[in-house]
Design a protein that fits this description.
Layout lengths: L12 E3 L4 E2 H15 L8 E5 L9 E3 L12 E6 L2 E6 L4 H9 L2 E6 L12 E7 L4 H17 L5 E4 L5 E6 L6 H18 L4 E2 L11 E4 L9 E2 L15 E2 L1 H4 L14 H5 L16 H12 L1
Helix pairs in contact: 1-2, 4-7
EC number: 6.5.1.1
Keywords: Ligase
Organism: Actinospica durhamensis
């Protein structure tokens, strides 16, 4: 572990609209490290990097860079045509180092390196066609259904128009099994309000319906990390929420930005006490089958 990281070009502007510099990005990630690291540690990581700012050419990096400091941990995992090495972000120093590399947005797996084929979260990506309000409504409807199934859940903004709803689970199920289960849950939601929701992958066939996306539950798929910054002009942040905030009709994703998060991190963390992970999905599976057959 280095005694100090050699930062560079701290005054480089990464977000031109608000003149947010790389130095500010680094300090932001340092300020949220205590909250963010539990959601990063032991998970393969990928990065969206913007070396000259979000309005300039960028690249998405899954494989770990070839020249990393020895103290930055890596993990090699299987992929369809071989293997790939990912960065692991285990500590604040690595998080700051990645920010210095202009890694604006961090993406993680839903599983950890000791059991990469067994996710510890079931994820629903609520992607509205137009307005955030559509995602807010969907998240509340999904929470009601999940509660009906006996599955507690958490929610966060994505930094875009959508919301992510996650169900903590014990690592007993493989990714394909979980994705099929999530699809069936979405099929129930879609059957209840077919004019509002769809699982149709092709955009041309969705119309004005909100897309219920469960594809991120597949093996090696990526999801934006909690508290990560997105490459939007106002530097929005993917932010964990309390469900009472989702119930507030005035909620907007633009409320949470790199520069506004200081006040929020001074308050209680909505995800400080996560729901106990579901030890078994058997009873929920039976209930889902019953609702689909009805």
């Amino acid at each position: 572990m280095p005694s100090a990281i050699k930062f560079s070009h701290l005054d480089k502007v990464l977000f031109p609209k608000d003149a947010i510099t790389k130095g500010e990005l680094i300090e932001y990630y340092r300020s949220v490290a205590e909250r963010m690291l539990p959601h990063l540690q032991d998970r393969p990581l990928a990065m969206a990097r913007y070396p000259n700012g979000i309005d300039k050419p960028s690249f998405f990096q899954q494989a770990a860079p070839t020249h990393l400091p020895s103290w930055v941990k890596q993990v090699t995992v299987s992929k369809e045509d071989g293997e790939i090495s990912h960065v692991l972000c285990q500590d604040e120093q690595t998080l700051a180092f990645l920010a210095n590399q202009a890694a604006v947005t961090l993406h993680t797996w839903l599983s950890r390196v000791d059991r990469p084929e067994r996710p510890d979260q079931l994820l629903f990506d609520l992607d509205p066609p137009h307005e955030f309000e559509e995602a807010r409504h969907a998240a509340l409807a999904l929470r009601e259904l999940l509660t009906e199934l006996g599955l507690p859940c958490v929610v966060k903004t994505t930094g875009g128009r959508g919301l992510h709803v996650g169900v903590p689970i014990e690592r007993r199920y493989d990714a394909d099994e979980l994705r099929e289960f999530a699809r069936d849950i979405c099929a129930i939601l879609e059957s209840r309000e077919p004019d509002r929701y769809t699982s149709e992958v092709r955009k041309a066939k969705r119309g004005d319906r909100l897309f219920l996306d469960v594809s991120r539950n597949a093996y090696a798929q990526l999801v934006v990390a909690p508290y990560t910054v997105r490459a939007t002009p106002d530097a929005r942040v993917a932010t964990p929420l309390d469900w009472s905030e989702v119930e507030d009709e005035t909620l907007t994703p633009s409320r949470f930005t790199l520069r506004s998060m200081g006040g929020r991190t001074a308050e209680s963390d909505p995800w400080h006490v996560m729901p106990e992970p579901a030890t078994s999905l058997t009873s929920a599976r039976r209930r889902v089958d019953s609702l689909l057959a009805a």
